[in-house]
Known about the structure:
This protein is mainly alpha-helical and 158 residues long. The chain contains six helices and three strands; from the N terminus they run ββααααααβ.
Amino acid sequence: MPIFVNDTEISDDQVFREMQHHPAEDRETAMKMAAEALTIRELLLQAYVSEGLGPREGSEEGDPEADDDRIQTLLDTVIKVPEADEETARRYFENNKSEFASLVPDGLPTFDKMKQVIIDFLRDSSWRTSVTQYIKILAGKAKLAGIDLEAAETPLVR
């Protein structure tokens, strides 16, 4: 059964071709993962156009690298995450000392040694959460058929 993202069809053949990139314990799980990936990709590509970032020329012919660039441009444009400051990083360090002790064989590393690692981790975590929320919002606004994708009606997603 084909999937529709607004008026764009994702065929069974496209899902079958995508399955090779989603190893799973069984065929059904791989098919579901492939269908979700293609749906999310299509949502993001449609958002790229609707945000006025450019046309989708060549995308229909299946240029995955150009599509990846379009998606990266979209995410760089719409996803903004705050940079964690030293106080936030120190609070994270203090609240998660046992986590850091298990990374280092000879005891707890100092905050100064872990500061940049923590700041990078907090930024990356915030970015991943923001992207997940953005995809849910796109799915909530889209007309989807042939797939169940977690969606949100408002920007306040948890």
